[in-house]
Amino acid sequence: MEINTDFEKMNFHDVSIEDVSRIDSKIIIALSGIFISKEHPSSNGSDLIVQNGVMTLYNVSNEKSLTWLNNGAPVSHETPEYPIDEIMNANFDGSTFHFNGFKEMVPWHEWFIQATSFNLVAFDILETTS
């Protein structure tokens, strides 16, 4: 299954990032645990969990990763090449992907990626009830 529309009909809460790589203007992210809502046009009317998948972000023009150490201002992330390994929230507004969550069980990190589109290739899919 491939998904490249309706990002907002997927839920990334507690999704694990297994690997991140970059090739040219693409960021490739190996993920597990993505929830696909039955409202998503690719779901065939069922709630789904993607156990293993690869999401490619295309036409990446910029990225920024931040760490919040306290209630003050964020600082640059120590490992910006792999800033998050557990996603709590994910959004895409059409030009920027925004992920936030944990790295090695430590909160709170944000990852902003300016890109034009995505493609999720789902390898292992389970049907579930919401």
Our count of helices gives: 0
Overall tally of domains: 1
Mean pLDDT over all positions: 93
Q: What is the straight-line distance between the termini?
A: 20 Å
% residues in beta strands: over 45%
Helix % is: under 10%
Please state the structural category.
mainly beta
For the largest beta-sheet, the strand count, sense and barrel status come to:
12 strands, antiparallel
As a whole number of angstroms, the C-alpha radius of gyration is 14 Å
Low-confidence stretches: none
Count every beta strand, where a strand is a DSSP E run of 2 or more residues: 12
H/E element sequence: EEEEEEEEEEEE
Net shape: globular
Please sum up the structure shown:
The protein has strands spanning 2-3, 10-11, 15-23, 26-32, 34-36, 47-58, 62-67, 75-76, 86-92, 96-103, 106-114, 117-128.
Task: Give structural notes.
By secondary structure, the chain is mainly beta. The chain has one domain. The chain is built from no helices and 12 strands. A hairpin with a 2-residue loop joins strand 3 (15-23) and strand 4. The model has no long low-confidence stretch (mean pLDDT 93).
Keywords:
mainly beta, 0% helix, twelve-stranded antiparallel sheet, globular, 130 residues
Describe the protein's topology.
Blueprint: E1 2-3, E2 10-11, E3 15-23, E4 26-32, E5 34-36, E6 47-58, E7 62-67, E8 75-76, E9 86-92, E10 96-103, E11 106-114, E12 117-128
Antiparallel strand pairs: 1-12, 2-5, 3-4, 3-9, 4-6, 5-6, 6-12, 7-8, 7-11, 9-10, 10-11
